[in-house]
Design goal:
Blueprint lengths: L8 H15 L3 H4 L8 H13 L1 H16 L4 H8 L9 H15 L1 E2 L11 E2 L2 H5 L2 H5 L35
Antiparallel strand pairs: 1-2
Length: 169
């Protein structure tokens, strides 16, 4: 992913903020201030190619409107994912595909219900998948931890980037 992607910074930032709302992860985890891999821009580039820039821009516009109306991240996710109110609209299906991509590193076409329709978009997307963070784990063969780290308790979900309240002991 060393290739510089020609995605406007404001569009990438809006995509990162929308992704944070949809996935339940902190915005600064989705798009860290210092991020040589630019995973959010990389995924946006793939989504543009796979779903079409027009569809993605419509979804980003929907997010911007919901955010401007003061909706919480959970409320935004509920509407955009077609949870409340219930919807099977193309925009909701695209949002669901984006969540799957963030968590699994695989693109499932909008509306797909098959576990076998997914295609890994890149090794970086797979390794950076949020499912690993949600499980407090890492992809096989890729770990930011040192040897013997299993002897101590795993970091909290909040330390893994999940947007959850800190648990105080």
């Amino acid at each position: 992913m060393a290739t510089v992607l020609a995605i406007p910074a404001t569009r990438a930032a809006t995509f990162a903020a929308m992704s944070a709302a949809l996935t339940g992860f902190k915005p600064d985890f989705i798009a860290p201030p210092v991020d040589p891999n630019q995973l959010h821009a990389h995924l946006l580039h793939h989504i543009d190619e796979l779903a079409g820039t027009t569809s993605v821009d419509q979804l980003l516009a929907q997010f911007t409107v919901l955010q401007a109306h003061g909706q919480t991240s959970q409320q935004i996710a509920d509407v955009m994912l077609g949870i409340s109110p219930s919807s099977h609209a193309p925009a909701a299906q695209l949002a669901q595909s984006i969540v799957k991509l963030w968590y699994l590193g695989s693109w499932y076409p909008p509306g797909s219900t098959s576990a076998f329709d997914g295609n890994v978009v890149s090794s970086q997307a797979y390794v950076g998948g949020l499912a690993w963070r949600a499980m407090q784990a890492h992809a096989m063969g890729d770990s930011p931890f040192k040897f013997g780290d299993w002897t101590s308790a795993p970091p909290s979900l909040a330390e893994f980037g999940a947007d959850v309240p800190e648990h105080k002991s």
